[in-house]
Each structure stands twice: as structure tokens, then as C-alpha cells.
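ok so i was messing around last nite and threw this chain in just to see what happens. nothing serious, just curious
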Amino acid sequence: MAIREIQAKVLLAHVRQPDPWFGLRYNVNLYRGCQHRCIYCDSRSECYQIEHFDREVLVKANAVELLQKELARKRVVGTIGLGSMNDPYMPLEAQLNLTGRALQVIARFGFPVHVITKSDLVLKDLDALCEINRTYAAVSFTVTAADDDLAKKVEPNAPLVSARFRAMQVLAEHGLHTGLTMMPVLPFIEDNEENIRRIVEQAHAHGAAYIIPSFGVTLRDRQRAYYYERLDESFPGLRQKYERAYGDRYHCPVPDAERLAKVFDDLCSQYGIATYMTPYQPGTATQLSLF
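result:
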């Protein structure tokens, strides 16, 4: 995959309020494109104008300096999200440390943060996240399949699910607000009770405070075409099932969504896991002991 540096003009984007899913006020994308190549990623859609999403990663070389200038002008403190259009901890981050340096800037300005990732590489920035957590820091790990082998089919270049759970446990042990985004749940692939049950059980065993679910997938234009090509490779015959069930619909809910949601809710209630995340609230910063 090609790597190319670009100069960004603006970094912080405002999130439409209220944001009931992730509690964000601002959004930051330090890269364009992603190395994980998850077959369901909506960022391939034409509306985002990322022409070579799977063939090239654009690195915003001036991102850290730009972030510092923009945060200095912000008068409203709100949660900054990382991970909406790509994974901030794709393998490239291990060399460039762009996300790590951005988190250090966010820590200096005292802004809260919510990181969404599929990677245990987030642990390299544990110190910065703990510093930010004096205000508020949340890390959500995307997990759609409990089984490592199945996850590798739908998220080919992402770290193993088991590694994500281990990383989540470390974050939880350090007092960070951490949990899962269980989205998308792919129809006819991941929408079975055993998969949902195992995800919730593993989340509980590794310290998850919350799981945010979405029982279905979104498909449009070139993302649908890409997804169907991958189905033909890894799940022969499934494309035709999708075409019969959904046609050209954007939102494709799993066929048994209501029952699976009930199973999920009951399990989360049993284990004391919230089905939503607790967002940052001004005035609730963590107070550190003087002794």
C-alpha cells in the first residue's frame, strides 16, 4: 500500500449535536485511507471522496502543529473523537506516531478524548491517555466477531480480536473508560446467538464498561460493490442472499434483529455492562490525590 504525505488545511471538524452514540463534539482524522482493509468499511463510499482507500494512505504531515493551533482557539471544551474514517492505530502508526503525538497535544490542552480502534497498538499511548483521563478518556474497541478466524475474514489486516480484548483489560485496569463498539453485525455471517453471547462474555471478562451495538450493516455504491466482491471470495453464494434480502437498500438490518437485541440486552444486564457509553460531562474531571 502506498504512503503519501499531504498538508491539511483544517483538522478539527465539528460533530452535529447531540451525538448520542459516541459523545463527540469534535472529530479528527490524522490519515486518509486505512491499512486494515475491513470488508464492511463505509469510508469507501463515494460521498467521502477517498478515491484510493485500499491502495493508498495519505498522512497529514502537519496534523500535530495544526491541532495545536486549532485547540488554542477553541472556547468550548468537548470530546475529540479519533477513528471515524480510518483506524488511528493502523500499522503505519507504529512508525509515525502521529496519533501518539496528537494525544500529547490534546493532553496539554485538557480536552477529553474518545478513541475508536481495532488495534492493541493503542497501548503504546497508555501514559498520554492516562494524562487525558484527568479530564476524560474513553477507548472503544470495535469487535464484530468473537472468533479470531472469522474476524480475519472480515477484517483482514486488523489485529486479532483476542489481542483487542487483552488491550482493553489493560486500559480498564488503569481506570480508563473502555468498552466495545459491536458494529456492524454482519447479516448471515455474525448474526447468531453464539457469536453475540461470546462477545459479551469476553467483554465482561476483560473489563468492558459498555458495548454499543448495531445489528446490521450499511451498504452503498462502491462500498457495496467492494463488499460483494469480498463475499464472493470468502463466503461463496452469500452475495445472492444479500441481493434478495436488501436490493439497493443502504441500511441492511440482520433478519432476526429484535430477538438478538433481546439476547444482547439480557446478557449485558446479567453482567452489569451498559449498552451505551457515559460521555464526558464538564465539571466531572478526575480529582487526583495530593498524597
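not much to say yet. The chain is about 35% helix and 15% strand.
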